[in-house]
User: What shape does this take?
Amino acid sequence: MAARNGKNGLLEKWRIDEKPVKIDKWDGAAVKNSLDDAAKKVLLEKYGYAENFNLVDGRLLICTISCLFAIVALIWDFLHPFPESKPVLAICILTYFIMMGFLTLYTSYQEKNIFLVSVQKDPAGMDLNHTWQLSSSLKRFDDQYTLRVSFTDGKSKHTREQEITKSVGAFFDGNGTLVMDQFEKCVSKLHNTLATEKKTK
Amino acid sequence: MLSLDFLDDVRRMNKRQLYYQVLNFGMIVSSALMIWKGLMVLTGSESPIVVVLSGSMEPAFHRGDLLFLTNRVEDPIRVGEIVVFRIEGREIPIVHRVLKIHEKENGEIKFLTKGDNNSVDDRGLYKPGQHWLEKKDVVGRARGFVPYIGIVTILMNDYPKFKYAVLFLLGLFVLVHRE
Assistant: This one.
């Protein structure tokens, strides 16, 4: 019992979900990542949607398969020294680079800039579930962050989108700490605009 | 726990993101590996890029030059050409010029090599009892070279701790940094 508690305690100390997010304000990638994560948090925790991992899993699968081919090539070449391993090597290498091309196509066309696919389950369990998607963009060395919320109705399969562009300076203080309240207000407004549209239609 | 701020990003990751970080590292290693093996397949040589380790071929090649090799079956070895070979039982490739060749009718050859800057032929370097090299000892023929860049490889091999430190830091950076 004590050991189990001890392990949980260590894990809890490792995870820092409650610590305010502080990043290097000049690092564009870190800024975008922290804003994306915060938007995810709002949708998943405040509105209680369930995250759908299919898109991310697809990418993980492609990467895992590519690495497997590389490992196979490595082991085969180790067991059957070079000249004999040529045909197997050639196949593995070709497949690897084809998979790389596949991965690039997947991230460009399937994933686009979507970083969250979540499902709003109908509380009564009667109607089909609605899908909320979040995507964002932040150009290099630019400060304008665009957040796009898209709502897909479970029944009509109709998709509605709403986006907002703001400077990242509106959400971070001088030290690079994310001001969650401001950002949450912004995301909630976006979400509620789409949600009310749904009701009036 | 130590407050290592740079690990904050990692601590906030969920299982999938952690797995993706590891995969990212694996993909970079795999890509490098696949490019190297790809070069091996394209050139037919088991070591398509070698570094000249000694000054035995000056003034043609200097210590630290990077050589690009091919090892095609169709290229016949002729006297006067530079070949890169390995002596049985030793890992280090040697870059020297062919001095003499004995050729059988079926195409099998035995040849003797010597470095341009050496005063004697390579018999002193061969295995005890071995007087000639054969095709199987050849790693390839030099087709192109880049001067001086190989010094980095020589340094890394002379100071292995430096090499491991650099690789460790690079690996850590890839694992911790989010795209």
